[in-house]
Inverse folding.
C-alpha cells in the first residue's frame, strides 16, 4: 500500500529528472533533445496530480515536491535552453535576462501555493509555469522557422504574464476529448522533429513516457465516458 501511495511522487521525480537532463542536453548543444525532455516533463506533470487523486495519495510532501520539480523543469531548464540557442550572443546581458524567467516562475509558484483560491478548477491567476516552459520548448523546436524577435517578445511576455493577475482558463475540469488540441500540438511537434531527422541521439525516455501517457489518456477517456453514460 505504501508503494502505491508513492507512485505519484515517482512521476513528480521523473518530471524533475527530465528538467535536469534537459539542462545537460542543452549544455552539450543537443537543443531539440533538451526541448523534448521538457515536453516529457509536461506529460509527467499532468499525470502526477491526477494519479494522486485516483489513488487517494494526496500529501503535503507531494505538493511541495511538485513545485520544486516545476521550477527546475519549466523554469530553469527552458531559460538555459533559450540562453544557449539565442541569448548567448548578447554575452553577460543575455545570461542575466535569461535568468529572469525562473525568478518570475518561482514567484508565481510561491504565490499559487499560499493562495486561498488555488482550489479553483475554472481558472489560474497568471500563466502557469508549466505552460510557459512548454511554449519556450516549442519555440526551440521550431526555432529555424521563427524570427529571433518573436522569441524575445514571447520570452518577455511569458515572464510577466506568469506574475500577472490575469485569469487564465484552466483545463483541469475539462472533459478529456477537449484535450485534443494539446495532444495534437505535442504529437505534431514530435512527428515534425522526427521527420526533419534532427536527432542523432534521440532520448529513449520518450519511448517509455509516450505510451504511458497515451494509456493514461485512454483510461481517463473510458472513465469519463462511463461517468457520462451513468448520468
Amino acid at each position: 500500500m505504501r508503494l502505491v501511495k508513492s507512485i505519484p511522487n515517482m512521476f513528480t521525480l521523473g518530471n524533475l529528472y527530465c528538467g535536469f537532463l534537459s539542462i545537460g542536453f542543452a549544455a552539450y548543444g543537443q537543443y531539440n533533445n533538451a526541448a523534448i525532455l521538457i515536453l516529457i516533463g509536461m506529460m509527467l506533470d499532468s499525470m502526477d496530480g491526477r494519479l494522486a487523486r485516483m489513488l487517494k495519495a494526496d500529501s503535503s510532501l507531494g505538493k511541495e515536491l511538485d513545485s520544486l520539480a516545476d521550477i527546475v523543469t519549466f523554469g530553469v531548464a527552458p531559460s538555459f535552453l533559450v540562453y544557449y540557442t539565442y541569448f548567448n550572443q548578447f554575452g553577460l546581458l543575455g545570461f542575466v535576462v535569461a535568468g529572469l524567467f525562473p525568478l518570475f516562475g518561482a514567484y508565481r509558484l510561491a504565490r499559487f501555493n499560499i493562495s486561498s483560491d488555488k482550489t479553483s478548477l475554472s481558472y489560474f491567476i497568471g500563466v502557469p509555469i508549466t505552460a510557459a516552459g512548454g511554449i519556450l520548448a516549442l519555440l526551440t523546436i521550431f526555432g529555424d522557422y521563427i524570427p529571433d524577435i518573436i522569441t524575445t517578445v514571447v520570452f518577455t511576455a511569458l515572464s510577466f504574464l506568469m506574475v500577472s493577475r490575469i485569469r487564465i482558463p484552466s483545463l483541469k475540469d475539462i472533459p478529456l476529448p477537449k484535450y485534443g488540441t494539446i495532444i495534437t500540438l505535442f504529437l505534431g511537434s514530435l512527428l515534425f522533429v522526427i521527420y526533419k531527422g534532427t536527432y542523432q541521439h534521440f532520448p529513449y525516455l520518450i519511448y517509455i513516457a509516450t505510451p504511458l501517457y497515451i494509456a493514461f489518456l485512454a483510461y481517463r477517456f473510458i472513465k469519463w465516458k462511463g461517468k457520462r453514460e451513468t448520468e
